[in-house]
Amino acid sequence: MSGCSKRCKLGFVKFAQTVFKLITGTLSKDKIEDELEMTMVCHRPEGLEQLEAQTNFTKRELQVLYRGFKNECPSGVVNEETFKQIYAQFFPHGDASMYAHYLFHAFDITQTGSVKFEDFVTALSILLRGTVHEKLRWTFNLYDINKDGYINKEEMMDIVKAIYDMMGKYTYPVLKEDTPRQHVDVFFQKMDKNKDGIVTLDEFLESCQEDDNIMRSLQLFQNVM
């Protein structure tokens, strides 16, 4: 691995840690100031004001996130391999590779094989601070693996199994091998309103908002984000 690649990987670890601070609410104003003071580069992206208007992050938060993403990773983009390595560090007791693969492609909306800061922070804003409707639409896009506008049972199974694999045996000590399939069977039956074998966006939104069990299960996604 080249020196630049190592620096990019380490820098994105710092970025991921900052993201987790935001998720857990531990990134206080004072800590934001501290992290800004530790930053050696004063450059600010031209589109920062636009991102502030488009997302639910403050200018200070965007500055911290940008530095964690760009200053330590000069290319300004993250590839899938680096993304997988980061998730592997946060979930050492499981296999995060497939979930990271699906999540990466949900962030990579232009399907270029890389994620820019703008792509990541826009999605992050939805997942952490968006409305219920916005979060559900984004989650639907994640489950719609082939991007045909529908979710079939195989796609749902792939995502759910990837989540269970990532969480690992220590999180689910009594998990049976067929548990993911059982959950998918129940949820898909509830979501596929007209029984045509696929779930549309409207069916997904309606099912999630009318069934507390489905909504609670989808919150697992928020926790592993």
From TrEMBL:
Q: Which UniProt keywords apply?
A: Calcium, Cell membrane, Ion channel, Ion transport, Membrane, Metal-binding, Potassium, Potassium channel, Potassium transport, Repeat, Transport, Voltage-gated channel
Domain EF-hand residues, every copy: 95-130, 131-166, 179-214
**Record carries keyword Cell membrane:** yes
**Matching PROSITE patterns:** EF_HAND_1, EF_HAND_2
Q: Which residues form a coiled coil?
A: none
Tell me which positions the record assigns to the signal sequence.
none
Q: Which Gene3D superfamilies match?
A: EF-hand
UniProt keyword Coiled coil present: no
Subcellular location(s) per record: Cell membrane
Family membership:
Belongs to the recoverin family.
Protein name per its UniProtKB record = Kv channel-interacting protein 1 isoform X2
